[in-house]
Amino acid sequence: MKKWAVGCGVLAVLAIIVLIIIGIAGGSYNRLVKLSQGVDSQWAQVQNVYQRRADLIPNLVQTVSGAANFEKSTLVEVTQARASVGKVQVTSTNAPTDPAKLAEFQAAQGQLSSALSRLLVVSERYPELRANSNFRDLQAQLEGTENRISVERGRFNETVQAYNTAIKSFPTALYASMLNFKERPYFTATEGAATPPRVQFNFGTQAPAPAPTPEKQ
Predict the structure, then answer these.
(1) pTM of the entire predicted model
(2) Using an 8 Å Cβ cutoff, are 113 and 146 in contact?
C-alpha cells in the first residue's frame, strides 16, 4: 500500500514538472510568435511609406517635365530608379529572412532616394518650379515621406532586435530554430548616406572663355 502511494506521489510530481515545462515552453513559443508578428507588421509599415513615395513620383515627374529646358537626364534617372525598385522581388507579407534580399531591396530604394534628391536640388535652378504650387506641394509630401521612411525603418530595426534577442537567448535558443524561428536581417546605413549628393548642372551653355593674357612689353 505504501509503495503504491509513493508511486502515485512520484507520478504526480512528474506530471506537475511536465505541466510546468509545457507551460513554460508554450509561453515562450507564444512570445516568439508575437515578436515575429511584430516584425512582419512593422515591415508592412515600411513598405507602405515606400509605396507612398513611389505613388508621388509620376506626378512629380509630370510637373517637373513641364519646366522649360529641364535636365532630361535627371528625369530619366528618377524614372529608371523607380522602375528598378519594382523589379526587386521581396515577399510582401512577411519581413525577409535573407539578408541578401533585404540588401537588394535597400540598394534599389537608396538609388531612388539619391535620384530624387538630385532632382529636387536641380529644381532649385528653375524659378517657374519654385513658383508652382503643385510642385511645392509634391516636394513637401516627398520630404515628409522621406522622414516617415527613416522613422519606420528605425522602428523595424527595433522590432527585429527584440525578436533576434529572444531567439538567441537561453533556453529559447535550444529550440527556436527547430520551430522555424529564423534570425531576421536589419536595415543598415547606406554607405555615403551622410554625404550630400553631388549635382552637375548642364544647361547647354558653354563655359566662358578665359580672359586674354596681357602681352608683354
Answers:
(1) 0.77
(2) yes
| DSSP assignment of the chain | -HHHHHHHHHHHHHHHHHHHHHHHHHHHHHHHHHHHHHHHHHHHHHHHHHHHHHHHHHHHHHHHHTSTT--HHHHHHHHHHHHHHHH----SSS----HHHHHHHHHHHHHHHHHHHHHHHHHTT-HHHHT-HHHHHHHHHHHHHHHHHHHHHHHHHHHHHHHHHHHHSTTGGGTTTTTT----PPP-PPTTTTSPPP-----SPPPPPPPPPPPP-
Are 192 and 113 contacting, i.e. CB atoms less than 8 angstroms apart? Answer: no
DSSP 163-206: HHHHHHSTTGGGTTTTTT----PPP-PPTTTTSPPP-----SPP
The pLDDT, as a whole number, for residue 179 is 86
Q: Which residues of the chain have a pLDDT value below 70?
A: 1-27, 91-92, 190-217
Contacts of 43 (CB under 8 A, 6+ apart): 94, 95, 96, 156
pLDDT at 100: 92
